[in-house]
C-alpha cells in the first residue's frame, strides 16, 4: 500500500516564506507542524527544512531575483540561526531517540480526531509495529484521547525547547497537553 512506502517531504513550509493564500510569513510553528506531520502521517524516511534567507542566497538585504512576491529578504547568514532551525534540530534529536524508521501511521488509536472540525488541530499519530513506541503531534495543544489505555512511560515533549515532562492520563485514555501550543506526546514500553 502507499502508506507503507517511505516518503521524504522535500518541500514543507519554508520559514519566512509567504503562505500562498494568506501571504503571512511562515513561522517556526508552521515549520514544526509541517515537519511533524510529515514524519507521522506516512512511513517516514525524513523531512527537509528551508528558509527564505538561505533559499534566496542574498549577500545583503534585497528583493529576491525573479520573485517579487517574496518581499525584501535578509542576507543568507541571517537564516543560519532561526527558531525554525532550532526546532528542526530538536525534531531530529527526538526521532533519533527511538526507532523512527519503524513508525507507521496509527489513526485508529485515536478515539476522536480534532482535525475533523478544524484542520489546524489535526493530530498525527504513529506507532511502531511492535507497539513499543507511540508518537503523536498536537499542533495546538488540547487533549488526545485514545480508544484504549496506552501502556509504558508517557511523556510530553516540548518541540520549542526539547523539555520533557510526565504525561498523566485522565480516565486511563485521555491526556491533556500542558499548554495551547504545539506538543509531542510519546509512550515508550
What do you see in this structure?
The protein is of the alpha+beta class and 189 residues long. The protein has helices spanning 28-40, 52-56, 83-96; strands at 7-9, 44-47, 62-63, 72-73, 103-105, 124-128, 133-138, 143-145, 153-157, 164-166, 169-170, 174-176, 183-188. The strands form four sheets. The protein has a six-stranded antiparallel beta sheet, covered by helices on one side. Helix 1 (28-40) packs parallel to helix 3 (83-96). The two termini are 28 Å apart.
Descriptors:
189 residues; alpha+beta; six-stranded antiparallel beta sheet; elongated
Tell me the strand percentage band.
15-25%
Indicate the percent of residues in helices.
10-25%
Biggest sheet features: 6 strands, antiparallel
Count, helices: 3
What shape does the CA trace take?
A: elongated
How does the SSE layout of this entry go?
Blueprint: E1 7-9, H1 28-40, E2 44-47, H2 52-56, E3 62-63, E4 72-73, H3 83-96, E5 103-105, E6 124-128, E7 133-138, E8 143-145, E9 153-157, E10 164-166, E11 169-170, E12 174-176, E13 183-188
Helix pairs in contact: 1-3
Short overview:
The protein is an alpha+beta fold. The chain has three helices and 13 strands. The strands form four sheets. It has a six-stranded antiparallel sheet with strand order 5-6-7-13-9-10, with helices on one face.
Amino acid at each position: 500500500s502507499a502508506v507503507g512506502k517511505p516518503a521524504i517531504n522535500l518541500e514543507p513550509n519554508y520559514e519566512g516564506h509567504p503562505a500562498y493564500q494568506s501571504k503571512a510569513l511562515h513561522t517556526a510553528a508552521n515549520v514544526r507542524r509541517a515537519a511533524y506531520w510529515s514524519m507521522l502521517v506516512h512511513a517516514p524516511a525524513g523531512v527537509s527544512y528551508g528558509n527564505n534567507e538561505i533559499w534566496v542566497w542574498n549577500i545583503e538585504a534585497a528583493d529576491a531575483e525573479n520573485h517579487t512576491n517574496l518581499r525584501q529578504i535578509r542576507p543568507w547568514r541571517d537564516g543560519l540561526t532561526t527558531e525554525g532551525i532550532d526546532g528542526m534540530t530538536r525534531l531530529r534529536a527526538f526521532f533519533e531517540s527511538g526507532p523512527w524508521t519503524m513508525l507507521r501511521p496509527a489513526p485508529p488509536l485515536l478515539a476522536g480526531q480534532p482535525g475533523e472540525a478544524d484542520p489546524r488541530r489535526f493530530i498525527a499519530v504513529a506507532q511502531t509495529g511492535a507497539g513499543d513506541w507511540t508518537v503523536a503531534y498536537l499542533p495546538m495543544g488540547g487533549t488526545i484521547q485514545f480508544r484504549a489505555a496506552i501502556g509504558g512511560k508517557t511523556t510530553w515533549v516540548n518541540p520549542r525547547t526539547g523539555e520533557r515532562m510526565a504525561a498523566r492520563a485522565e480516565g486511563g485514555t485521555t491526556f491533556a497537553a500542558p499548554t495551547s501550543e504545539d506538543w509531542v506526546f510519546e509512550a515508550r514500553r
